[in-house]
Amino acid sequence: MHPLSRYYSVWSLLVSVRTPLPRPDRGLLTRRRGPASTALLLAVVLTCQLMVVLDATIVNIALPDVQAALHFSPENLSWVLNAYTLTFGGLLLLGARAGDILGRKRVFLAGIVMFTLASLAGGFADSGGLLLAARALQGVGGALASPSALALLLTMFPDGRERTRAIGYYTAVSIGGSAVGLIAGGMLTQWVSWRWVLFVNVPIGVAVVLLGRRALPETPRQRDRFDLAGALTSTFGMVALVYGFVHAATDGWANTVTIASFAAGLLLLGAFVGVELRAPSPITPLRLFGDRSRSGSYLARLLLVAGMMGMFFFLTQYLQDVLHYSALRSGFAFLPLTVALFVFSQFSARSLMPRFGARVVMIAGVTISTLGLLWLTQLDAHSSYWSLVGPLVVFGVGNGTAFVPLTTTALAGVEPRDAGAASGLVNVMQQVGGSLGLSVLVTVFGTVSRHALAHPAAGLSPAEARTHAFVVGSGAGFWTAALFLAATLVITVVAIRVPRPEPVDALSEGETDPVPALAVD
After folding, report:
1. Do 247 and 178 fall within a single domain?
2. pTM
3. Is the dihedral angle over the CA atoms 16, 17, 19, 20 positive or is it negative?
């Protein structure tokens, strides 16, 4: 599926909404918006989210070409992904706070401009260091733009049916964009060059800036301080942890640098909690964690994305290194997953949640996703593509079903003053979950594959031994990813108590469709 087809699909769904779009919160926005401008705002938010999420995976398909061109080692190759996701995830909370203080439209536009310029620089990079620096700057730009965009969406759509529907679109783009990135990356790498997986952001970024200047309302500035200490301790703490996992994959768990990295990460994250407890204007108001269901949804999202990103990472290399697919063919191999994600995210928002409630839908979705990953553990060096189709569809159905209720639970009941921070936390869990999950899975993969390569089966040629080592290592990675999802299921069952639908006896004045009332279990 071409990326433009994704935009057309989202836009078609957007304009097909039959009920009028709601008016914004007049206490937060500086001017009233009509339905047409609200639709344009939603289109800008969706395009922004597609761009920043897509960039976390569009590089996946190009990794073999990037490795050959810029001479990355196999273990350090994951930093092409982590340099982006770590700065994005680590600075999201500061970006959300910046939007609250400086005005969300200003911060959004500044972030998109930075993201676009960094993409241009990354496309021209002639060394690994320059590419990693550009990827890190992309993450900073995304961290400024994404939470402000989602916070504006929350203020435009009050709690209820329309917010659930808008979040359904947002979630479809958030999770579907990851799969679209693989397809788009294959097309660009095969037809042009790996550099175009970065250059493609430039025209999209320019369009978002031009439309955003027109469509986005400005929010008033607040007289407050930036929690710079909180942003720095959280970001460097996560970087230290991820570096520890990646370093363990090459040098072992007992290595001094590995142990020092873990110790520094834990100390910095502990310092982050201490800073937030004392800060007059924390980037993470701890009151957001006072709700058990919201806290559970954050942790469940982190673990679910951790498993998902590992699947993308290993399957991409399996398709190219074991099945010997081209970059283009590898991208299109993920099409069943993309379709399943998009269709079932919409089905979850429109039909399943109003009928069964968020908790039941979450449990069902995570269970299905877990089964899909367990199915992938059966791959071997002689499997065909058709052995992948079933697991891809099952995993797509599960994730598409689960992500919408996870998002609505994380944002339900949030006060307007905390909209930016709550939006930032949703994206933090997604980005940090991807980084931590990928680093853990790469560590497991590296340990198992090295052992298999050091003790090859009798009768295997060197090439066959390398393929066998990769398959054994990726199988261990799939098992670990399945454990992440099993832990997600336990958290969902034990910790989350979210609204369930109740019948509505009468319609309020002016309503054309019943909106399900919600009651807490």
Report:
1. no
2. 0.70
3. negative
